[in-house]
Target: Starvation-inducible DNA-binding protein
Amino acid sequence: MKTLDYLHLDASAANKVVEALQQLLADYQVFYTNLRGFHWNIKGHGFFVLHSKFEEMYDDAAEKVDELAERILMLGGVPVNKFSEYLKVARVKEVSGVSCGDEALENVLNTYGQFIAEERKLLSLASEAGDEATVALMSDYLKEQEKLVWMLVAYSTCDCKK
Model:
């Protein structure tokens, strides 16, 4: 028997969820690499805050990569594990040479905006498939990311000069 037989999910509907999870996996892999670059190369007045924050973010992205890959496996798929394949489908684009905090934050915020849109679509798709576990996973991601976006926007738009 297959895992899906025990999960009581329709294979066709689960395959659609797997496709969306594969997309998100590719995007998270590229984002992880971008965050590593920001962490390594950041300079300037926000260095101490951003250096630590980018490390926290890439650790979180690595955890999400693992969760997404395992969810793909649970739903009967095989997670892509080649970076060359990620780059073919990822909507998140590679960046390099970014050392300015404002530029890095803009990229991070834009990427989280992409993730939030993708995760909302995936949540809806998983809900239609009766896949409550993927719905819960996406809900958790959304809750965390919406708060992080709010905090990053507050950090990047603060003008303390009066």
